[in-house]
Amino acid sequence: MAILEVKDLKKSFGKTEVLKGISFSLEEKNVLAIIGSSGSGKTTLLRCINMLETADSGLITVDGSAIFDGDSDEKLTAQQKLENQLKIGLVFQSFNLFPQYTALENVTLAVKAHAKSRPDFKENHKAIYKEIDELGMSLLKKVGLENKANNYPCQLSGGQQQRVSIARAMALNPKILFFDEPTSALDPELTGEILKVIKSLAAEKMTMVIVTHEMAFAREAADRIIFMDNGVIEEEGTPEEVFDHPKSERTKAFIAGYTEV
Questions:
Q1: What is the DSSP letter of 38?
Q2: What φ, ψ does residue 58 adopt, rounded to 5°?
Q3: Using CB atoms within 10 A of its CB, is residue 125 exposed (0-12), middle (13-18) or buried (19+)?
Q4: DSSP string covering 1-32, please?
Q5: Considering the entire predicted model, what is its pTM?
Q6: Please, how many CA atoms are within 13 Å of residue 254, restricted to the half-sphere of its CB?
Q7: End-to-end CA distance of the chain
Q8: Position 259 confidence tier, pLDDT thresholds 50, 70, 90
Q9: Dihedral of CA 185/189/195/196: which sign?
């Protein structure tokens, strides 16, 4: 069974249709790269799946549970919404770190907030917080920043801040990790360090959805490619199918444009 299923998802802003009936699925431990020109609907799709935007209609299921059903009158409870949020993690374009907290604090903040609901929290809060800090340090080590745990965001480079945001997204052990143009705010020389981290997660079979303009990276790291254009999925397939043997003329033109650069 697919860990993520999106069926006939639609979203408009005013009279502008941004998503015109998006349907796809993602198997566990696979990496999906979503490519396409700016304005094709890629970011809106990610924001709808992560509940930062509410779709107008369609169905989104994660790990067998509906997190959005536009055809149902039944509203999710607060507990159900929280459980759904814990299933997915999102790495933003612009880091979104809290400037007043250290790298370690940024990584562990949400985990510590959720820990307060544990029935044994009052009696064991020191041990629980210690355990969470150890988790945070292990995640910072995974992204190569264990020596920057006590640094504030202003003391980190853009690439380092983005690596902290990746560690933060993993802290709640999501079922799926989403990336929205994770290198778009970085200088070219810093892009490589972020792509290296994402490739290492792919090698560990982390289920991921990545919106990216890095074509060589998408081809190398992804199991599946979706090419979006004007609010629809124009083409979908393996990297070899989409990059080497595109069927759509629009896909061919898009790929050729990147090949010529």
A1: T
A2: 115, -170
A3: middle
A4: --SEEEEEEEEEETTEEEEEEEEEEE-TT-EE
A5: 0.90
A6: 24
A7: 39
A8: low
A9: negative
